[in-house]
Design a protein that fits this description.
- The complex is a heterodimer of chains A (231) and B (102).
- Chain A has 231 residues and is mainly alpha-helical.
- Chain A has 13 helices and no strands.
- The radius of gyration of chain B is 19 Å and the shape is flat.
- Classes of the chains: A mainly alpha (231), B mainly alpha (102).
- The interface between A and B is large, with 98 and 72 residues.
């Protein structure tokens, strides 16, 4: 194990630090918004420690604040988190093989840690390093910043003014670009995007992305090739 | 949010997360299926990037965010460092908003 951490790539550490900075801002804004909505500080803190899924946390707090009720909040957040099942299937080997690695590692399966692991999926050791370093760092940074944001609620303005909402898609996209070099993956992903964006105006958040999974069908169906005329 | 709601959400989310690595270990997968799982994760992530870029809830997110993501995407494609692409995406969206673009 020690030899793995001695040889951490500099590039990985730098990239994780960059994304962790953005995660910190979003965490602080989550803590601030949750407390401003009238929740006691322990609510955002407990959610961040136990649920640890930014999108689902924002949705649950938002639904309750809008008067949608607790059940709708939980159902919506669970739908949003369903994508982590296929993520876990894909990054299972990067999480690890012994029970404590699975128990701890599963909790830090996120969009970001999946993307970090997938970006190095050709090399099992580097993929595992990327998963654990990104997952662990983001867990620590997210929880500290949510608590700080909750305490400083009222002092934190709209993080959209800093363009943080654009930093996330841009970061994830940068991480999955290498996977898109594969022609089948590219076709599947483009079909998935088309399905998700076309259905997004009509369906609750979370569902369009799951429907996008149907795009994988495009990678399975073989492309018809021109027949070579035999003499 | 109540204690019970948070506990239920946390338990279900953890079960969803743990199911992946556990299933992956129990079932023997052919190379084709392994490749398909990687393709599925990539497809989900790109679909997530797309919806997070252009939508806010069920409506259009405005022009500043997609413009920022586009700048980040071009920089990543041109092999700019990760941090540069992410910062440029945020800066573009922030400056557009400062200039009054929604």
């Amino acid at each position: 194990m020690r030899s793995i951490y001695r040889t951490l790539e500099q590039g990985l550490v730098r990239d994780v630090a960059a994304l962790a900075t953005a995660v910190g801002f979003v965490g602080a804004s989550f803590g601030a918004i949750a407390v401003a909505d009238g929740n006691p500080l322990w609510v955002p803190v407990a959610m961040s420690l136990l649920v640890f899924a930014g999108g689902a946390q924002f949705m649950a707090i938002g639904v309750v604040a809008a008067g949608g009720g607790v059940i709708a909040a939980v159902v919506g957040a669970v739908l949003l988190n369903l994508r982590m099942l296929p993520f876990g299937l894909a990054v299972g080997p990067a999480v690890g093989n012994c029970w404590w690695q699975r128990v701890l590692g599963s909790h830090v399966i996120t969009d970001e840690s999946t993307a970090f692991a997938m970006a190095r999926s050709g090399d099992p050791v580097r993929s595992r390093q990327a998963f654990w370093l990104s997952g662990g760092t983001l867990f620590v940074v997210w929880n500290i910043c949510v608590a700080l944001g909750g305490v400083a609620s009222g002092f934190i303005g709209d993080t959209d003014a800093f363009g943080i909402d654009a930093a996330f898609p841009a970061g994830l996209l940068a991480l999955i670009l290498p996977s898109l070099k594969d022609r089948d993956a590219r076709r599947a992903a483009v079909c998935g995007v088309a399905i998700a964006v076309a259905t997004a105006p009509f369906l609750p958040p979370g569902i369009p992305v799951l429907l996008g999974l149907a795009g994988v069908g495009a990678a399975v169906i073989p492309v018809p090739r021109k027949k070579v005329a035999r003499p | 949010m109540t204690v019970i709601a948070i506990a239920v959400l946390a338990a279900v989310t953890y079960a969803i997360r743990l199911a992946g690595p556990l299933l992956r270990e129990r079932v023997h997968l052919s190379d084709t299926v392994k490749r398909l799982l990687n393709t599925s994760a990539t497809t989900l992530l790109l679909a997530l990037v797309a919806t997070a870029t252009v939508t806010e809830g069920q409506s259009f997110a405005g022009w500043a965010r997609p413009a920022g993501v586009l700048v980040g995407a071009v920089l990543s494609w041109r092999r700019a460092p990760f941090a540069v692409a992410v910062l440029a995406a945020a800066a573009t969206a922030a400056l557009l908003r400062l200039a009054g673009v929604a």
